[in-house]
Amino acid sequence: MDKRRRVLLSWSSGKDSAWTLHRLRQMPEVEVVGLLTTVNGHFGRSAIHGVRQKLVRRQAAATGLVLFEVPLPWPCSNADYEKLMGEALEACRARFAMDTVAFGDLFLEDVRSYREERMAGTGLGLLFPLWGTPTARLAREMIDGGLRARITCLDPRRVPASLAGGEFDARLLEALPREVDPCGENGEFHTFVWDGPMFRRPVTVAGGEVVNRDGFVYADLIPEDGG
User: Fold this and answer.
1) pTM for the predicted model, two decimal places
2) What pLDDT sits at residue 48?
3) What are phi and psi of 46, to 5 degrees?
């Protein structure tokens, strides 16, 4: 009998969740059975990262995993978010028969505590495969390991606006201000992964419009084939 943990991975479209998938697939006691993502239902884009929904779907196809999408209203209250996520987890449990949920969190204790509190009593286990890895080392590990990503959103108060849309690579790490976390864990920047060892094929993209909205700089990405 297969006694591996059946894991649903929280998927943001960014480097941390993508590298979490890579790590999970190296763990023999784990089977990743699906991806869970939130979508801004008004704009048709991933929540926070602002990536087009069709690109997130292409990522999932490239991983070979089923993507479960949770449409969120806009604006979305915390109460609405928690209700919708609770319903989504129950639906995923029925669909995937998973017993564990994995997250790509790195070191923010309040975020981890929130997840643990919300999951308490659900009977589901939690995994944080990247937790506690020094982020300078982790960023280099991702880049050296073949992860390719572009910056889709950044906080111009912390990161130069000119970096929006650029590649997450060694040159970017050198260009970041010293006080910025190399993985952007404090919300300095967010990414979209278009290639890496977690994918069967690249999700090629072209740069689109760069806009300032709600105090952040967003760099749109477009499917390279125009589809």
Assistant:
1) 0.96
2) 83
3) -65, 140
